[in-house]
Amino acid sequence: MQGLVGEPLMARPADLVLWRSGRDYFAAGRKVFRLSGGNYAEPPRLQVLDEDLMQRLRGRRKGRRPNWLRRDPEETRALLGDANIVRLVRLEEEAISFLQDVRREHADLPPVVSWSGGKDSTVASVLAQRAFPDERIPHVFADTTIELPSTYEFMREFRRENPAVPFLIGMPARDFFELCREIGPPSRIQRWCCTTHKAAPLTDVMRAVAGDSQVLAVTGLRRHESAGRQSYDRVSNRHKISIQLQVNPLVDWHDFDIWLWHLVHRPAMNEAYRWGLDRVGCMYCPSGGGWSDHLISSIYPAKIAAWRDLLVELFSASGVGDAESYVDSGQWRGRSTGNIGGAYLAGTRAYEIDTVPCQDDPYSVTYELTANFDLRVLSELLKPFGTVHRQIEPGFCGDFEVTGKWGAFSVHAVPRWRKVRVTFDRPATRRRLMGTIRLQLRKLQACVGCGACAALCQRGAIVSVGRNYRIREDQCTHCLECVRGLKAGCRAAHSLNVRRVGQHA
Ligand code: SF4
Ligand code: SF4
Known about the structure:
CATH superfamily of the largest domain: HUPs
CATH class of the largest domain: Alpha Beta
Radius of gyration: 27 Å
Number of domains: 4
Mean pLDDT: 89
Largest sheet: 6 strands, mixed
Bound molecules: iron/sulfur cluster
Strand content: 15-25%
Number of helices: 18
Number of strands: 20
Structural class: alpha+beta
Helix content: 25-40%
Strand order of the largest sheet: 7-6-5-8-10-9
CATH architecture of the largest domain: 3-Layer(aba) Sandwich
């Protein structure tokens, strides 16, 4: 607590007498103080709401210590547990029987636990193990490589405590900091990292468990975590990871239920909660804010200082006037496109494509790109549309015939001229595919090998190793999800988009 405001708030921090809700702190059932403000650069302000209690917490009041301060932390735990055990047992039993029912209904799907290093997925893990005691359910973890160090420590402890649990770790395709340089730092709106560093690695490991089938992924997701999660279903197919049928046994548990569970069962816990973080995520999460920024920078000052330096460097290089204020005030979290108040992130033009209808031929369209491209990659990117027959003249141009369920078209591409001419078999095909082909061509010039496309494909047909984009013809069902399922057709292009989010050239 001392690191938060620069002075000790309690004489004995180990006492279980100070409780927090948001940024208000309570003792003996009364509000003692509130912390406000605070960010990477500034500590928060301490507003004492009850001077008498504050003095007692600090051990500065003479005389007999009040009962609530003399109570042993174990006694507090026992009191809370005894008062609420009926509710807790009911919740656990209901969640376990729900898991067993879902498992019976989807007996063909292998179960996994999606473990994140947080308090909720720890409860989900224990309940899943109790629901299926005869199985060793694999736990999958996406190592974003930018987790809090306390999460890595907790992961080691969790594995020590659960030696029989198979634990699979997925890694992202690209380095986070390199991607920040190439497609701009993530923001609340441009949260590409959730796809590239969370969903894509999780997809990889789930695929290792399930092969071509889906997995039954037990998570700790809860509606009460945020407004955005209010509409979550208990069993869901609507999410970024196409290979999973998501099962959320705790979806209606309150924060209180989760904390109560931890107080009663006392498993190992991520230390970050003890500092006051409500949720444990990545070090540099753009969805965080002044408060979590301040907490994390108090604990890991060197890492946050390096991140702040990188942000200032990138936004200065993009032409943002006062980059330091832009970063320290948290404005960087609000960027929605590659255009920041008239300044541009590096590479913002890389995704742009002009579509020029042919005057003489109503069946043809020419796409004008802004960069040279590779004909072999183009050949791969046409596969979602159907079977591709190709003829590539080394170094100059390529001709492709594509036939499939969406219609037929031919392609004449000249990398040196940065042009791709497409001739459709009929007007209906042109109407259906003209925009979709443009989305796909964005990948041709903007792909940085982030792994998002592979995560979207239910069939595991996309094998992209770095920028080497390949599609396995034998697996592709031509569903076009990897094209239409990504805004701007490409996560990287969307992050650099200079038009209003949701509108693409
Ligand atoms: S998502 Fe997969 S199966 Fe569907 S078109 Fe793309 S590569 Fe083919
Ligand atoms: S095309 Fe775009 S979204 Fe797909 S892997 Fe490449 S960078 Fe990621």
